[in-house]
Amino acid sequence: MTEESSGALTFTPEEIEDGKVLAGLGYLGILFILPLLIKPDNRFCKENAKQALVLFLAGLVLSLTMFGGIFVLVVQLIAMVRTLQGEFWEIPVVYDLASRFSL
Fold this sequence. Notes:
This protein is mainly α. Helix content is 61%, strand content 4%.
């Protein structure tokens, strides 16, 4: 993983290919823990897991309202699809919160 001058994260093709399925699964609720346990040295997995953690916590809070729960679910599904395609999506607000975690 490197940071380009724009601040965007980039990953090696090997990191992406090796971790995209596990990172994608991480967006399914509590399963965010799997990429951290199974591939702790894969930075693609780690960055997606951090975002999935924030989404999981947001889902717990926002599920008190129907709209909030549906919104988080839609964001999780989009993130999962993009991750399985080998892309890293810096989810607005979520990425900013997730980047504060050191896992």
